[in-house]
Amino acid sequence: MDILEMSAVELGRKIKAREIGALEAAEAALAQIRALEPVLNCYVAVDEEGARRQAAEVQKKIDGGMQCGPLAGVPMAVKDNMCLEGMPATCSSKILENFVPPYTAEAVKKLVEGGAVVLGKTNMDEFAMGSTTETSAFGVTKNPWDPERVPGGSSGGSCAAVAANECFYALGSDTGGSIRQPSSFCGVAGIKPTYGTVSRYGLIAYGSSLDQIGPIARSVGDCAAVLEEIAFHDAKDSTSVRRRDCDFTSALVDDVKGMRIGIPQDYLGEGLDDEVRSAVLAAAKALEEKGAVVEEFGLSLVEYAIPAYYVIASAEASSNLSRFDGVKYGYRAKGYEGLHGMYKKSRSEGFGEEVKRRIMLGSFVLSSGYYDAYYLKALRTKALVKQAFDKAFAGYDVILGPAAPSTAPRLGELLSDPLKMYLGDIYTIAANLAGLPAMSVPCGRDSKGLPIGLQLIGDCFKEKNIIRAGYAYECTRNYEMPGLAKRQAAEPGRWEVR
Amino acid sequence: MANVITDETIEYVGILAKLELSREEKEAAKQDMGRMLDYIDKLNELDTSGVEPMSHVILADNVFREDVVVNGDAREGMLKNAPKQKDGAFMVPKTVE
Amino acid sequence: MGKQYETVIGLEVHVELATKTKIFCGCSTEFGGAPNTHACPVCTGMPGALPVLNRQVVEYALAVGLATNCAVNQYCKFDRKNYFYPDNPQNYQISQLYLPICHDGWIEIETAAGKKKVGIHEIHMEEDAGKLIHDEWEDCSLVDYNRSGVPLIEIVSEPDMRSAGEVIAYLEKLRLIIQYLGASDCRLQEGSMRADVNLSVREAGAKEFGTRTEMKNLNSFKAISRAIEGERIRQIERIEEGRKVIQETRRWDDNKEASYAMRSKEDAQDYRYFPDPDLMPVVISDEWIARVKARQPELRTEKLARYQSEYRLPQYDAEILTASKHLADIFEETVALCGRPKEVSNWLMTDAMRLLKEHGQEPEELGFAPQNLAKLVELVEQNVINRTVARGVFEAVFTENVDPLQYVEEKGLKVVSDEGQLRQVVEGILRENPQSVADYKAGKQKAMGFIVGQAMRAMKGKADPALVNALVKEMLLL
Questions:
Q1: Other CB atoms closer than 10 Å to residue C412's CB: what's the count?
Q2: In this structure, which topology does domain A3-301+383-485 adopt according to CATH?
Q3: Which of A182, A320, B41, B77 could disulfide-link to A159, CB 3.0 to 4.6 Å?
Q4: Chain B within 8 Å of C56 (Cβ-Cβ)?
Q5: What is the model's pTM?
């Protein structure tokens, strides 16, 4: 089997057994990157030297018989909103174009300590605001299944890189569906853990009460293995939760007998593409055939989650992004007048359109006279959404539905209509509001050949339920790879990223 | 559109958010914000009386750090990204008249 | 001015807490240090950095709240106050608006008309800003984040004060309470205690408050008094001229003795407070409150009583010593080393207070070690030096914290009690002053004092005065 087509866990095992060299794995991934990046643009920065150096270090440890994590030597990628000491962290924004953080995000640090080989930083919607990876200041990322289409977003670079075999797994972040929706569009698996499971220290914040880092890989098994590495209690993040049940790989059991699975009717109604509906219901059927108890139910409040989300996320973003002011780091405009002139010019030139739109909205809903009507109203709605899920989880172990209303749209299609783009998050947003773990697993393709994602949502701290359901479902089918992801002949010569 | 955003509102929000929009951007922002607020007004259909606003989903409290110095001089790292610096400090346009 | 006006004053007092580290990160709060050497990703607002609350900040805030008779919000939270300024690295300040830690307290002050209660509206915890240094050479400002994130409590009073005198009494009382708790050293000059004055005037007898202004940049009691007087007159003049007082923030310039408005069109004063999603709520249990109460150190009234009973000091002494926590601490530590409380008290009350006044300093600024005062007391006690010399030694202790024993030896200040040497000196004086000898013999007792004085001077004050006295008396009778 080609190295590039191995799962992350399998590759890790072979590197540990010294059947494959860490450097060999890194070179294979780097060659794939060199070959495909001109088409796909998954990365904003590739660190070839660094990757080789890390691979050599890991190899030395393994050769010396030292203890290494299960993923030691496996080449991976990090979304560009996470800090890595010595590597630029841009959030795909001009305002951070030259920012090189002097520290590493705690989740990334865990992986690096375990021997991860970081290939580079992946493209995203600017500050994770978007659903297509088209709002990046560093170019659009293309979908490996059809380069005329978007990979989804905001973790589009990570998902496309995983799908195109440009890395074995990647980290993404999910504020309103930013891991699950692009995973669905790219035909890979991705988990957004329970809020508080993975440290946010070093993740450049968008909506602090909603943001969570999670794994993206080609299988549920790989996702569980990565999540097991990055889930820990971090004293540097006040919202980090102390958990004892982070042995997620123990849930990789092909057995769903008696598992109660609920499908919200609200997730199957108007606006859902027919082919997506059929694929999702077929997946439910497959689980039912394995012994799960599947039924439809009314979740309620689904249409209120999006407006509540946009109020909360924009409000938090308007405050989180005020630190980008040209004083301490990042972009400072030229030719300004006075302090406030510098602020305004730097921010207006440094931020893209979508980011400015959300900062404006967020500042407005928090401003004097509107706080109660918008912000508090949204927080009350959030409480009701949480209650609705609490009620649902009294009856079901897992909630099943689509990850997105459609398969990947064409480039530019959603960008022209922000509201339509926001509506695309309808099935993913509620899990962020309620802090719930949720994942997307590939469940077939539509007539255009584009991947469809199945979403599984669990109750707080019940990742194992969705991992078990996802794994059991995955066992019924084979992983499908875009044709383009087959190992490409390495292009001669070097090329520059960006 | 039920929410009509005035020029003054856009101007005011621009001061709060420190954003300076071009004339075209302002027009677009008025439209966008009006549409978004119309959409957000959907929340008014919900009766939320008696519901406590929920800021944190995970219930935890008293997350503390002990009062022990753990950081040393890290000035070089803090300053190396500064667009302008002088004498170990961040340099900005003067703040007093 | 025909009409009578009443001045209504409320204060917002910021106090820097005496923690070792900042409120949300493990950086030192130590004063001084080169710019940005006590700064980390958290207190410089780096992307991705997150705050974690220092437990000691809650302890101190709670202690101050309980000592000022406040009710405690047993569920309290932090909010973000959003505004752009370079000393505020995140461009939001983490503070408390909706659920501050303490509220509805009071303290009692002494006024000319007797005791008066001043209400405390609330106490909240927040982070301090960095420092801006204005660089005239480059025509720019430089930002130093060493102070950014230093913990503060803001104590907001009710508008209960009516004069500068009451304001100063309130501040002194507040300062004393906080110093006694060890929660802050409360130095106005260094900025560890800062007061913003909210002031309005109204016609005597009016029920409604007038429009108030807020004055900032007041860094001494004198500046506060002058600013209150200046603002009172400014507001009355406006009203008398038929103009309105505008609600605004004004900056006091103590050199020009005038205030000016701090307004700009870029300053919307709309802080868009909302709960900080990065911080969890603080829940203060009944047990926690009981624990802080039990640990509450002796406050001034108790100390005052103890000084009179345990140390047998007069009330006057006890009042002066306990009026500053620092002074009281020096007193107690010195007495623990050398005993003799009245003697120690005398040094502090007379010589130390006089020198402070001469140097224009506060008791908080006393910098010598109690060990050195104790040594001085012992040197006098053992008659190694006499009182006159001791005064000079104390001055050296006060200004340079010298070791008195070493100082006395180096300068050769020990008492001379060699009878033969003194006898020679007295003989010489008597020989040079026959008129005085004659006067004494004629019954003028004063003349003896003169001769003793001359002898002491000749000995450069180092002679044992009792011995000199005895010798002069004896030799005059010859």
A1: 9
A2: Amidase signature (AS) enzymes (3.90.1300)
A3: A182
A4: yes
A5: 0.88
